[in-house]
Amino acid sequence: MTQLREHVFVTGATGYIGSRLVPRLLDKGYSVTCFVRDPEKLAMRPWSEHTDVRIEKGDIEDTASTARAMQGAKTAYYLVHSMLSAGSSYAEHDRKLARAFATAAAQAGIEQIVYLGGLGETGKGLSEHLSSRREVEVVLGETGIDVTVLRAAMIIGSGSASFEILRYLVERLPVMVTPKWVQTRVQPIGVRNVLDYLVACLETPAVRGRVFDIGGRDVLTYAELMQVMARARGLRARIVLPVPLLTPRLSSLWIHLVTPIDRRMARPLAEGLRNEVVCRNDEAERAMPCERLLDAREAIELAIANLEADRVESSWSAAGPMPGDPDWSGGSAFVDRWRVEIEAPQSVVYRSVCRVGGGHGYYAGDALWRLRGIMDRLVGGPGLRRGRRASESVSYGEALDFWRVTRADEPERLELHAEMKLPGIARLGFEVERLGEARSRLVMNARFLPRGLFGLAYWYAVLPFHGYVFRGMLHGIRRDAQRAQGTTRRAPIERIQAPREPAELR
Questions:
Q1: The pTM is what?
Q2: Which of 174, 175, 182, 369 could covalently link to 222 via disulfide, CB atoms 3.0 to 4.6 Å apart?
């Protein structure tokens, strides 16, 4: 084991950068305290059980508890922001958090704060997002502690917000009517290089109390970056039509519709793109040489390779008080969720669920299901002709009409993956909860991950039919299960609000 050198305090360890930084610090021989609001978010991280990791639960606004958690550390990483969690008041909230953190650091005897901020020209005309980042820099230094600031523009890596916006815009829109900011110059940087610089801040005393612009090897416009992404994805060149009429608000709504990024995060990111974000000098590279700076093409290709190999370390959606930089980086799934209570044992309800499809039908709307099967067959899909192996049971891996059984945990859960021709990926899941000896709750989830604009149009086109089809299906399952028990109680069938969620649909 590498000789232990010193103790480091890290905020934002559940976020996109923080969760990647911690294992690299451990590899370098540092011990780390991760200060988080929700320790459960780190439970599945392979490094969370490392002997040199201490996980402390707390809130930065509580200065006293933050100072206690910092004891023994010389350097503290400040890797938090409020863009997603605090809405339109994020700038004010960021100032408040930074002030509390700086106060706690002074009380704990911290010698150096490392902050990852935003790249952009200084002075007037900065977006609110970049102005907020500048204010945080100032606030962190108010107690006299040496602050090392790294200012980065677009961070390119699998699962990063910038990468997801770029990838989804390019994949879904062969022709784009865009804001004029697509002609703004940017200097993106690969997440690997960002992490190199963050670690180097610990090992280079000369960087204390200094500000550095960090970027990759090339400078492009956002429009040129789109073409780099298109080539990396094997797509034709995108047609980009900049217009001056799209406001940041309209741009953020469009990003929210086409990409997985929440509009609350999209707006400050869109506003920030109106500022040129190019390094003013190469002082960072000279002071803290990286192993090798990547250019935009290399950073994008590496991110795509990690995505396709399912090696995504962290994602934008894991940050904040609720999931929302994806550990699967697959986008945002639409969800339609329903539930009903049934006067029948869990095992009986599960058997009724397993009768769905095949010759038994779908309990309701069978004409619509047959029509969908015919349409699928016409375009080369399996349609409904495959039926099912047995009339009463299903097993993992079996075909069921145009579904494939991907999970069959009797008597709790059945999950079906759609193999019909679709502009996206769809799953239908059933969860049976035991409420008593003869009472259960059935929850049904329809999830859809759209592919392209046609995928989005498809979801909204079929959504009105769900009320009839899914309500009828649950009614039929309830009737079938209760008939076996000789009960007739009709509990209400409820639709649960669940518009979109990060979901692992592969």
A1: 0.65
A2: 182
